[in-house]
Every structure is written in structure tokens, then in C-alpha cells.
Specification:
The protein is of the alpha/beta class. The chain has two domains: about 120 residues, abc type-2 transporter like fold (3-Layer(aba) Sandwich); about 200 residues, no CATH class. About 65% of the residues lie in helices and about 10% in strands. Strand 1, helix 3 and strand 2 form a beta-alpha-beta unit. Helix 10 packs antiparallel against helix 13. The longest helix has about 30 residues.
Length: about 375
């Protein structure tokens, strides 16, 4: 083998092992991808939060609830006292489905046939389609059990009308179109990627070229330097947000039911986290490649654990807890609710507060570290 080639390979290995940060990234990222894809890349939805409005409150209605409780597709999380309360839980995203049992359920059942209503939140088609099929199957199985019980009691081989009929309806996305779920997520990914990656690489590029030292010796203050570097990317990110929003509406038919002004304000709030991550990455990286790899250490789990591709309800509880450490999770929850449900700020206030906390903490820490490195 060519000795020069061997020498180059040897030198490259020496450089990799000397650069501890690059070595950690090379070793950690494949393992991270393995675990994230292994656990989160699934559409097998279980324990969908279910709100129940039981107006009958009879032994028959309790038997129906037991049938839904026995199947692990649903978790009866809320018992409400009105349809308005049920709608409020679904609007806030606390419940993904609702079961409405009428007051005359037990009487109708004894007469031969009763109906209940099952409502689904269609803003997430993956969860809704699975829950829709599960609701119908559970209802049919329960009805068959009642039918067989009647036949056994009568001792006759006769045709009996189906005793329970589950009528389903899907809110916000009746046709379960996946684009309604994905395009709002694309907005979040664009905001995060543009602000974090470009901010980090732009600042490191100045350091690589030696021009940042020239800026430091000028009368420009450190906060002016930081603001001047991140504002262009903020403007570009907001422009891309509007671009994706209107193209998605015009070409894919994604509804814009919420306030455009509120969407822009929440997006600008989310930018604080992305800008802070990019700024922080620029303080620990010496090259643009290191800066991009550092940002990807946050971007990669954000893609898989924020609900961008895969529903959070399908993930193990531990990964669901980890997702609360990612600002993108809260932004995607907000943008999808605003676009598809058309609710106001009060319905997404908890997620907005989380973004405010993330933005202040991340941007504050990054700015302090950046100023310290300039000094």
C-alpha cells in the first residue's frame, strides 16, 4: 500500500483523537440516532387521553366505559360535566378524544338499541386515525358481547338488532390529511435550523477569518455585536415562516384559523431559543464544522422528540419527559393549535410561558458566555 496514503490516514486519526469534542460527537450521534429511531419511530399509539361525559351514570354506561378502559388504546383521564368542558379539554390538547353518553342510554339499550358519540381531535392525523379505528372496534366488540348475552338468555337462534352504535366524528381535520400536521411542524424546524445553525456558523466564520478581532478593537459594544449578528437571521426566519405558512395554505390547503399576528409573535418568541442555542454553540466551537455539529446535538433530538415526525403519545414515558426540555415541543404544540383549531392565546398560555422561560434562560446564558469570550 502507498506509504503516503498510510501516513495521511494515520495523521487524520491522530487529529480526530486529539480533538475530544469531535470525537465525542462522532461516537455519540450514531448511538443517539439508534435510540431515538428505535423508540420514537412508531405509530403504535397507546393510552390516548380520553374525556368522558357520562350523562346516564348507570350500570350499562359503566360497562361501556370498562370496555374502553380495558383496551390500552385509551386512558380515561377526565370525567366532565358538560359538552363545553369536553370541548375545552380537546381545544387545550389535554384530551385527544371524547366519549359522550346520552342520559337515556340505559333505557334505549333495554329497548334494543342505543347510541353514543365519540369525538376525536384530528389535528394529529396519526393519533386520530388509530384512535378512530380503535373506538369503532371497541364499540363493535362491546355490542357483540351484549348481543351474544341476549341470545344466550333467550335460548333462541334469532336475529337481534345491534344494541350499541358508536357514531364517530373528527374535529379540525375531518379527512385526516397528514399535511395539516406536517406543515406546521416544518415552520418550527425552519425557525430552529436557520436561527441556530446560521447564527453559530456566521460568528465562528468571523473568528476563523480573524475579522472578529478587528470588530472587538472597534468602539462597537459586545451587545451591539451580538444583536447585529443575529437580527438578519431573525428577519430571514420570520420571512420563511410566512412563506411556508402561505404556500402551505395555498398549495396544500392547510387552514389558517388562528390570528396571523399571534402566530408571528409566538414565532418571534420561539426564535429566542434558537438564537440562544446558535450563539452558545459559537462560543464552544472553533470551526464552522464544529459549530454545526454542536447545533445538531440539540437539533437531532428535537426532530424526533418534539412531535414533529412521531406522536408523543407513542413514545416511552422517559422520552416524553425528555421532550419537555426541548423548546420545539412547545412551539409545535402552539402552532398546530393556532392553525388548525383557531383558538386564542388563553388556550396555549402554558406553552407560551414555557417558551418565555426557555428564551430568557438560553439567550441569557449564551449572551453572558459570548461577552465573556470577547473579553
Amino acid at each position: 500500500m502507498n506509504t503516503r496514503l498510510i501516513s495521511i490516514i494515520r495523521k487524520e486519526f491522530i487529529q480526530i483523537f486529539r480533538d475530544k469534542r469531535t470525537l465525542v460527537l462522532i461516537l455519540v450521534i450514531p448511538i443517539m440516532q439508534l435510540f431515538l429511531l428505535g423508540y420514537s419511530a412508531t405509530n403504535d399509539v397507546r393510552n390516548v387521553p380520553l374525556a368522558v361525559y357520562d350523562q346516564s351514570r348507570s350500570a350499562d354506561s359503566r360497562a361501556l366505559l370498562d370496555a374502553y378502559r380495558a383496551a390500552d388504546y385509551f386512558k380515561i383521564s377526565y370525567s366532565v360535566g358538560s359538552e363545553l368542558e369536553l370541548r375545552d379539554l380537546i381545544d387545550k390538547g389535554q384530551a385527544r378524544a371524547g366519549l359522550i353518553i346520552p342520559p337515556d342510554y340505559s333505557v334505549k339499550l333495554s329497548q334494543g338499541s342505543a347510541q353514543v358519540a365519540f369525538v376525536l381531535d384530528g389535528s394529529d392525523p396519526t393519533v386520530a386515525s388509530t384512535a378512530l379505528s380503535a373506538a369503532q372496534l371497541i364499540g363493535q366488540h362491546f355490542a357483540t358481547q351484549i348481543l351474544m348475552s341476549k341470545i344466550d338468555r333467550s335460548g333462541l337462534n334469532m336475529n337481534i338488532q345491534q344494541p350499541v352504535e358508536v357514531r364517530t366524528s373528527v374535529w379540525y381535520n375531518p379527512d385526516l390529511i397528514s399535511a395539516y400536521f406536517m406543515i406546521p411542524g416544518v415552520i418550527g424546524m425552519i425557525l430552529f435550523a436557520i436561527t441556530a445553525i446560521l447564527t453559530a456558523t456566521a460568528i465562528v466564520r468571523e473568528r476563523e477569518r480573524g475579522t472578529i478581532e478587528q470588530l472587538i478593537v472597534t468602539p462597537i459594544r459586545s451587545w451591539e455585536l451580538v444583536l447585529g449578528k443575529i437580527l438578519p437571521y431573525t428577519i430571514l426566519a420570520l420571512f420563511d415562516t410566512l412563506e411556508v405558512l402561505f404556500v402551505g395554505h395555498w398549495w396544500f390547503g392547510v387552514p389558517i384559523r388562528g390570528s396571523i399576528t399571534l402566530i408571528i409573535l409566538v414565532s418571534a418568541l420561539f426564535l429566542l431559543s434558537g438564537l440562544g442555542i446558535g450563539l452558545f454553540a459559537s462560543t464552544i466551537a472553533n470551526t464552522q464544522q464544529e459549530a454545526m455539529l454542536s447545533v445538531w446535538m440539540i437539533l437531532l433530538p428535537s426532530i424526533f422528540l418534539s412531535g414533529f415526525f412521531f406522536p408523543l403519545d407513542a413514545m416511552p414515558p422517559f422520552l416524553q419527559l425528555v421532550s419537555y426540555l426541548l423548546p420545539l415541543r412547545f412551539y409545535l404544540s402552539i402552532i398546530r393549535v393556532l392553525l388548525l383549531k383557531g383558538v386564542g392565546l388563553e388556550m396555549v398560555m402554558n406553552d407560551v410561558i414555557a417558551l418565555v422561560i426557555f428564551g430568557i434562560l438560553i439567550m441569557g446564558a449564551a449572551s453572558l458566555r459570548f461577552r465573556k469570550r470577547l473579553d
